[in-house]
């Protein structure tokens, strides 16, 4: 094997490694910028016409479709949840100046209302991602969210007020059923 051939092969391997590291960094920035509500920085991870979309499966309601950096920035900035993404290492398949990946995730989001009750959103699934090498570096061209499980619950927390006791118990309603009178 000549030194020219081995250097060319080494250069190709190095380029592939650098591309993969750049995409890993892009994915790390994805969760950090979204979770901190930094819509401007989050939108810059996408191409100018980039898309964030939920894949609709049979029986599911219509999911998000957001396209373009301005809309992406607003989508992130107006999110009412305090959230965190737990992203797994993506499976990256390079093809010249484009790439595809699958990133498994767990998502937790929290939103407190005016009564200090907390709505919690939990989701698990994966992102199918199309990446594109641009003058700015690797960017997300399209990101599909696919859920395995998605749920929402409300946590009421500690109620600091005393129960509404009166001198006498209220009259029983019907067959003695319980009624929350708060």
Summarize the model shown.
With 182 residues, the protein is of the alpha+beta class. Helices cover 26% and strands 41% of the residues.
Structural features, described:
The protein has 182 residues and is an alpha+beta fold. It has one domain (3-155): Nuclear Transport Factor 2, Chain: A. The protein has 3 helices and 7 strands, in the order ααββαβββββ. Strands 1, 2, 3, 4, 5, 6 and 7 form a 7-stranded mixed beta sheet that branches. A hairpin with a 2-residue loop joins β4 and β5. The mean pLDDT is 89.
The coarse silhouette is: elongated
- Give the ordered list of helices and strands: HHEEHEEEEE
CATH fold group: Nuclear Transport Factor 2, Chain: A
| Main β sheet profile | 7 strands, mixed
CATH level 1 name:
Alpha Beta
Using only C-alpha atoms, the radius of gyration works out to 24 Å
SSE class: alpha+beta
Q: How many domains make up the 3D coordinates?
A: 1
Low-confidence stretches: none
Helix content: 25-40%
Q: Cα distance, first to last residue? A: 83 Å
Total number of β-strand segments? 7
Strand content: 35-45%
CATH architecture: Roll
Q: Please work out how many helical segments DSSP would assign.
A: 3
Mean pLDDT: 89
Write the layout of secondary structure elements.
Elements: H1 3-35, H2 39-43, E1 46-54, E2 65-67, H3 69-77, E3 82-87, E4 91-95, E5 98-112, E6 118-134, E7 137-155
Parallel strand pairs: 1-7
Antiparallel strand pairs: 1-2, 3-5, 4-5, 5-6, 6-7
Any descriptors?
single chain; 182 residues; alpha+beta; Nuclear Transport Factor 2, Chain: A; 7-stranded mixed sheet; 3 helices; 7 strands
């Amino acid at each position: 094997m000549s030194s020219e051939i081995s250097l060319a092969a080494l250069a190709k391997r190095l380029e592939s490694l650098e591309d993969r590291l750049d995409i890993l960094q892009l994915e790390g920035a994805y969760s950090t910028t979204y979770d901190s509500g930094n819509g401007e920085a989050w939108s810059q991870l996408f191409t100018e016409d980039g898309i964030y979309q939920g894949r609709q499966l049979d029986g599911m309601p219509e999911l998000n479709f957001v396209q373009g950096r301005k809309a992406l920035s607003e989508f992130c900035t107006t999110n009412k949840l305090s959230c965190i993404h737990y992203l797994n290492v993506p499976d990256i398949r390079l093809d010249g100046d484009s790439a595809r990946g699958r990133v498994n995730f767990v998502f937790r989001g929290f939103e407190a209302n005016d009564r200090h009750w907390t709505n919690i959103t939990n989701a698990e699934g994966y992102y199918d991602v199309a990446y594109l090498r641009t003058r700015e570096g690797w960017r997300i061209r399209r990101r599909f969210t696919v859920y395995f499980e998605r749920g929402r619950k409300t946590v009421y927390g500690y109620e600091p007020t005393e129960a509404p006791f009166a001198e006498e118990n209220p009259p029983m309603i019907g067959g003695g059923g319980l009624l929350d009178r708060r």
